[in-house]
Write a structure and sequence with these properties.
The chain has helices spanning 56-60, 93-112, 128-140, 151-162, 213-232, 240-259, 280-304, 325-335, 348-364, 496-508, and strands at 9-13, 17-23, 29-31, 41-42, 44-48, 51-54, 69-71, 117-122, 144-150, 176-183, 188-196, 199-208, 262-269, 272-279, 314-318, 372-374, 381-386, 393-399, 407-414, 423-429, 439-446, 458-465, 471-477, 483-486, 489-490. By secondary structure, the chain is an alpha+beta fold. Strands 1, 2, 3, 4, 8 and 9 form a six-stranded mixed beta sheet that branches.
Length: 529
């Protein structure tokens, strides 16, 4: 380790915007501006031949070179490849995220020198697979990822810092409960947190990985496009660059509508042009169902935490989309409280991540922690097992959702037949009893079971789930002293070799084409369950 390891850096790797913060000499979180001088960097990548351009330039290119631009890769983490082919190549979504991280790493090091260790944030609702993919993206960008932390938890830490709870003697003796409402560009997250002296505990969390400001944008795009069609019988959405330009116009108009009562949006396509005027009222009417979805989830999360609105002290606003007046209004009506935006909605998450990084670094230096963070898991985790009565495969849950982490959970299964040689532990995440409706995390196979095991021999399966949502699996067979700790063979993840090749490629822009193709799944399975 070098001296650089003392800089605490946090990165809010957002679906649409990324922010980086560090802890300055006085112990305060400070956002680092990028090379363009902005506090946030669009999480957008433009490919120009072998060269990747990230940020504002790439966002602009959506109007002219849409075919070469990747955006919202975060939404596709967990998939094997990004939906769009770029420069004739299929990229894993985590590699596209790594290009973004690499750009912010380079920009930040202009201010604070080289650094490697970072904390990266993820939506609380992210499942295990997406968390792993985020860590991999950090690795590919040349980082040593100290931890991943949930975005709402990070926001709560930043809030706690402002309120003075993070000072050694500033801990509040009263219990404080916050509801963090985070509406960003591509995801919605809501979490109920409790701050009890120095303990930050998440009580319940929920969200929607397919809901964000862009859905609001698209309502405007569709509205304008339909008006255009009515007039000219032409659909501007059918041509990618025109659609890109129209989306940028609409996104801009949406921002204006947060400050003003009306705006006009221009659209031109195939030598026809028109301006469409839209009022804030109309905009709110076009999008109220989206807001209702967030309201519904918010109510459910409060219920899951076992609380009523009286029990909540603060409603924290996070994410650029909470600037829309309709959001505060809805929350005020729902909660009876004035929402709190005392930490900037764009910076809160990065600030909290940097504070978390400084706490980890202090712990690594042997200092006692100033605060403790405890999370809950957002999805139930289980294994696929056959029901002995019906012989149907079902999801046997080991860790129900909203369990406080870290946790270890054990469940006993049985071998199916005599002299069974191996068992397959297939791990799924989700609430449904039917494994097909759950997300497949991966599997591990226990081979070389002791000879002559009778049928129905108990097998203990133990899950150890860390605070950051990463999982390890232990399997032990009754009557043997062997305890098998298993790495999970993940269905959609990238091998270490490929990660290294990407790391070299992205951080050094060295061409290693031969190694960039994703391998076919070569996981061997032996299924004797
Ligand atoms: P993410 O974390 O998902 O990347 P952010 O929290 O950075 O997202 O929020 C980005 C979203 O916020 C975008 O959809 C953007 O259009 C929206 N946004 C930013 N400023 C405003 C504003 N003034 N009014 C309405 N929406 C805004
Ligand atoms: Mg965000």
């Amino acid at each position: 380790m070098t001296s650089e390891s003392n800089i605490a850096v946090g990165i809010d790797l957002g679906t649409t915007y990324t922010a980086v913060a560090y802890i300055d000499d006085t112990g305060r979180p400070v956002t680092l501006v990028n090379a363009e001088g902005d506090l946030v960097t669009p999480s957008v990548v433009l490919f120009e031949g072998q060269h990747a351009v990230v940020g504002k330039e790439a966002l602009k290119a959506l109007s002219t070179e849409a075919d070469h631009v990747a955006q919202c890769a975060k939404r596709e983490l967990g998939e094997r490849v990004f939906h769009k082919v770029l420069e004739g190549r299929q990229f894993p979504p985590e590699a596209l995220e790594a290009f973004v991280l690499n750009k912010v790493r380079q920009d930040a090091s202009r201010h604070i020198g080289d650094f490697r260790q970072v904390v990266i944030t993820v939506p609380a609702y992210f499942d295990e697979v997406r968390r792993k993919a985020t860590q991999d993206a950090g690795y590919m960008a040349g980082f040593d990822v100290l931890d991943i932390i949930n975005e709402p938890t990070a926001a709560a830490i930043a809030h706690g810092f402002i309120k003075g709870y993070l000072n050694r003697d500033g801990a509040s003796n009263e219990l404080r409960r916050l509801l963090v409402y985070d509406l960003g560009g591509g995801t919605f997250d809501v979490t109920v947190m409790e701050i009890n002296a120095h303990d930050f505990v998440a009580l319940a969390t929920d969200g929607d990985v397919q809901l964000g400001g862009q859905d609001w944008d698209m309502r405007l795009v569709d509205y304008v496009a339909e008006e255009f069609k009515k007039t000219y019988d032409l659909d501007p959405r059918e041509e990618p660059n025109t659609a890109g330009r129209l989306w940028r116009e609409c996104e801009d108009a949406k921002r204006t509508l947060s400050a003003r009562g009306k705006v006009s949006i221009s659209c031109d396509y195939k030598s026809q042009a028109m301006r469409v005027e839209i009022t804030r009222e109309k905009f709110e009417e076009l999008t109220h169902d989206l807001l209702d979805r967030t309201k519904f989830t918010t109510k459910q999360t409060l219920q899951a935490a076992g609380l009523t609105w009286k029990d909540v002290d603060y409603v924290l606003l996070v994410g650029g989309s909470t600037r829309m007046p309709m959001v505060s209004r809805m929350l005020r009506e729902l909660t009876g409280k004035d929402p709190d935006a005392s930490v900037s909605v764009d910076e809160a998450v990065a600030h909290g991540a940097a504070l978390h990084a400084s706490i980890i670094l202090a712990r690594l230096r042997g200092e006692s922690p100033v605060i403790n963070v405890r999370n809950v898991n957002s999805h139930s985790l289980g294994v696929v097992a056959s029901d002995p009565r019906t012989m149907r495969r079902r999801n046997a849950i080991l860790i129900p959702r909203n369990t406080t982490l870290p946790v270890t959970a054990k469940r006993v299964f049985r071998t199916q037949k005599e002299n069974q040689k191996s068992i397959l532990v297939q791990i799924v995440e989700g609430e449904s009893a039917s494994p097909e409706d759950c997300s497949q995390i991966g599997k591990c196979v226990v081979r070389n079971l002791p000879a002559q095991l009778p049928a129905q021999t108990p097998i203990d399966v133990r899950f150890a789930y860390q605070d950051n949502g990463r999982l390890t699996v232990h399997v032990s067979v009754a009557g043997t002293s062997r305890e098998l700790k298993h790495e999970i063979a993940r269905d959609n993840s990238i091998s270490q070799e490929q990660l290294d090749a990407w790391r070299l490629f992205i951080t050094g822009h060295q061409l290693a084409d031969a190694q960039l193709q994703a391998d076919d799944d070569d996981t061997a399975t032996i299924d004797e369950l």
